User: Which sequence fits this backbone?
């Protein structure tokens, strides 16, 4: 099994112990997922609302060779069992690791991560080699804020002081299928305004259909059709 040329070195740091892969994988897959939201907006159609990137994932398939004298094996390679134990311990101990990929003349990778998936496989005819599949998931540190409790010497009351965090962005709700709304006024049998059905008074429900261009384009709950101006979008 041919690996990447040795101008690429791959290391994983387990609790301060730097381990170099004995054989470079043929391919390394890096995923950059997003959590963008899409909505159907009346009069516009489908729109996308960008969100912050999700956690990056790096994965590959490879093997730990029993014969460490082969030319494709990196120097300093250890037994297959050594590497398996490193990954098993990282999973069992919930270790935070660091992936380092050093590429000569190209961009390097240095990512704090956790082992999200590790699988091994034995293949017939190669009883001493251990084949594996690995996925590393980006780790973003988080921790609670430290709050100091101060007692007012005059009143004896305790107050908490802490560093204020950045304000969270508030998303403005948009009209879409599934939106929570409060309805007021008459609702109709059809989106064309065929015979009023009943009158809503602060009716809490959800949007079930939107038909742009009609006189009453928004259908709410199991009730009927209304105009956008009759709605207060709450979520």
Assistant:
């Amino acid at each position: 099994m041919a690996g990447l040329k040795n101008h690429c070195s791959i290391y994983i740091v387990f609790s301060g112990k730097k381990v170099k892969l004995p054989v470079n994988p043929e391919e390394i897959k890096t995923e950059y997922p997003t959590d963008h939201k899409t909505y159907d907006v009346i009069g516009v159609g489908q729109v996308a609302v960008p969100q912050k990137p999700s956690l990056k994932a790096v994965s590959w398939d490879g093997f730990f060779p029993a014969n460490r004298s082969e030319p494709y094996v990196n120097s300093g390679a250890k037994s297959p069992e050594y590497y398996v134990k490193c990954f098993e311990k990282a999973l069992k101990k919930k270790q935070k690791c660091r992936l380092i990929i050093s590429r000569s003349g190209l961009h390097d990778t240095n990512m704090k991560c956790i082992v999200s998936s590790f699988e091994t496989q034995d293949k017939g005819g190669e009883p001493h080699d251990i084949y594996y599949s690995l996925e590393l998931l980006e780790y973003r540190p988080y921790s609670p804020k430290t709050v100091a409790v101060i007692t007012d010497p005059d009143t004896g009351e305790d107050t908490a002081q802490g560093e204020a965090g950045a304000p969270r962005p508030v998303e403005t709700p948009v009209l879409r299928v599934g939106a929570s709304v409060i309805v007021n006024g008459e609702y109709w049998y059809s989106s064309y305004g065929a015979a009023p059905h009943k009158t809503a008074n602060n009716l809490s429900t959800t949007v079930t259909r939107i038909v742009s261009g009609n006189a009453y384009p928004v259908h709410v709950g199991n009730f009927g059709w209304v105009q956008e101006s009759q709605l207060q979008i709450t979520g």
Notes: The longest helix spans residues 80-92. The two ends are 54 Å apart (CA to CA).
